[in-house]
Amino acid sequence: MIELHVFMLQPYGQAIILGALCMDLFFGDPEGFPHPVRFMGFCVSRGEKFFRSLPFGAFTQGLLLTISLAGFSFVASWLILDFVRPIWLPLYLFGHGILVYYGISVKCLASEAREVARAFRYKGLDDARLQVSRIVGRDTSRLDSSGVIMASIESVAENLVDGVASPIFYACLGGGPLCMAFKAVSTLDSMIGYRNSRYLFFGRAAARLDDFANYLPARIMVAVVSLASPLCGGSSPLRVWKTVMRDGGKHQSPNSGLAEASFAAALGIRLSGPAWYGGEKAERPYINQSGRVPEVNDILRAIRLLNISTIILVLPILVLNIFFGTKVRI
């Protein structure tokens, strides 16, 4: 039977999660290295044609694709780990660690944002637009300097939730398999969770499930960023909380707005505002409108905030394991 124990409280669970995070900080996501998320993306691309051929409405078709990929990611990961567990325990533990490592993306996120700042300083606006297009889904050809900088910082803020906090959160609950199930949902949302004519109904289940999956981690991150802010020379925790309460609901996503508002308040800048998607202009309100227009150096400050927030996020894992961790062997 599948064990329902909280993974981080099991023997070695804490070490696996922290070890996976250290692996990500050291190795990142090397280009060309095999990655399950790339396989998930392949499955979504191929699966869309098949599921759209089923005799159901677009919403049901997309729902079946979402359930199938998320369920397969969890079950396949669990079956492989369950198979190797009685053979050699270290391999079982290493398997969990690799899956969690695949789920976290701190270094990759920081590196991509840092490349935007480097392009600004040494190559110019056109190269910065090209670089930021790697990490955002909006049209970047229309962005001015402040628009590119805001897009980069917004990406760091939003991915602190779905690329760091949520994978660690689900790894803490269910180890590698649950972390992979979350990454499947996140991949689906990034590929089909759009509000356009093609995916409005087909991608709705993926988008809603992604909102649900990130709901609690996003709110945990507000607390984490508010604590990290003064350590980065930013605003007080109270200022961050007040800004999130006022502006966090302005975003169409119930989670991204919280992330952007917390970063905007911590860095003392404004974010969001009008943007272009697929040739159409989206009239988005500004978040922390009274903040100053961001500068290139604010990208580096956002990366520092990302790194310190990540450290604060994992500290409770140590504390909880000390007081509540089980001493029974896995």
**Which strand order does the major sheet show?**
1-4
Fraction of residues in β-strands? under 5%
Tell me the structural class.
mainly alpha
Tally of helical segments: 11
The biggest beta sheet reads:
2 strands, antiparallel
Number of beta strands: 4
Shape: globular
Poorly predicted sequence stretches spanning 5 or more consecutive residues: none
How would you characterize this protein structure?
The protein is mostly helical. It has one domain (7-318). Helix content is 68%, strand content 3%. The chain has helices spanning 13-27, 36-52, 58-84, 89-103, 106-122, 125-132, 145-192, 204-228, 237-247, 256-267, 296-324; strands spanning 271-272, 275-277, 280-282, 286-287. The protein is globular. The two termini are 14 Å apart. The model has no long low-confidence stretch (mean pLDDT 89).
Which key terms come to mind for this protein?
mainly alpha, 330 residues, two-stranded antiparallel ribbon, 4 strands, two-stranded antiparallel sheet
